[in-house]
Amino acid sequence: MFSLLGSLLLLVTGVTAVCPIPAIYIEPTITRPFAIQVQNASYPVVHNRLMNLWQAGGGDQHLYLSPAGTPTSNLTLVDGVITRLPIRAVINGEYTATDNTTKLFMTQRGDPRAFFDVGYGCNQTDDKLQTELHFRGRGTLPGGHICVRLASGNRYEFRYSPPGNTASGRLCIKVTLAIMFQETAVVEEARELDG
Ligand SMILES: *[C@@H]1O[C@H](CO)[C@@H](O)[C@H](O)[C@H]1NC(C)=O
Ligand SMILES: *[C@@H]1O[C@H](CO)[C@@H](O)[C@H](O)[C@H]1NC(C)=O
Ligand SMILES: *[C@@H]1O[C@H](CO)[C@@H](O)[C@H](O)[C@H]1NC(C)=O
Ligand SMILES: *[C@@H]1O[C@H](CO)[C@@H](O)[C@H](O)[C@H]1NC(C)=O
User: Which residues form the DUF7909 domain (predicted)?
Assistant: First the structure.
């Protein structure tokens, strides 16, 4: 009865964060290949899109929301760092003062890394338990969050917003980064290409 009521409420309101979250510590290393799904149900234009790679110079990869770039389901997390050897996710460059954000991209070079913890959360759409990457900080600076922002070519790029950021000259949408293991991600990508 209780869960029926819960389901009804979910249907009516579309509201989330009610699924039971296990109080378990998860090591910030995930060796099983995954894709990253971006979520913010308040912004349907970015909600449930995947993080894709986009070939840049010198072996670097830009990060864009699908359908831009190349679908990428073989990411891993190594000590809190998103990794696809030999490149890793870092935060540096293309700083813009209007929103006080900095670019997140992948490189072999030693720029300040983006660190994540692994945790659970509830899917904002279907309220199922999901594994998420919770942003821990940029290099040695803790806090802040990851957001996506409209860039040229109608693409959404990934940015870092520092802790206590009050600059709001440009919209950078704060997102949840959910883990999708390979099989699921491939299906999701096919669905996206279909429709
Ligand atoms: C990941 O997949 C891409 C595309 O299939 C491939 O080119 C690349 O070598 C793979 N990298 C790793 C580290 O698995
Ligand atoms: C969250 O739920 C929606 C709707 O069922 C689904 O499309 C999406 O892939 C789910 N995300 C994850 C990470 O499972
Ligand atoms: C911009 O970010 C820096 C940290 O990178 C912070 O010290 C500064 O207060 C921020 N500025 C605004 C206007 O939020
Ligand atoms: C969605 O994005 C807005 C704008 O960045 C942000 O204020 C809000 O916290 C985000 N919602 C979630 C659930 O992350």
Answer: 21-181
Give residue 182's pLDDT. 72
* Least distant ligand from the CA of 69: 1
Structure-block tokens of residue 36: 């990253």
Residue pLDDT, tens place only, 108-155: 999 999 999 999 999 999 999 999 999 999 999 999 999 999 999 999
C-alpha triplet 80, 29, 132: angle, nearest 5°: 70
Residues of the chain below pLDDT 70: 1-17, 183-195
With a 6 Å cutoff on the Cβ, whether 165 touches ligand 3 is yes
**Minimum CA distance residue for ligand 2 atom 10:** 123
pTM: 0.88
Residue ranges of domains in the chain, CATH in brackets: 20-194 (2.80.10)
Contact in structure between 22 and 43 (CB atoms under 8 Å): no
CA distance 20 to 122: 8
Whether ligand 4 lies within 6 angstroms of the CB of 161 is answered as: no
By most ligand atoms within 8 Å of CB, the mutation choice from 15, 16, 42 for ligand 4 is 42
Q: pLDDT averaged over the chain?
A: 89
Centroid of ligand 3 to alpha carbon of 191 (angstroms):
39
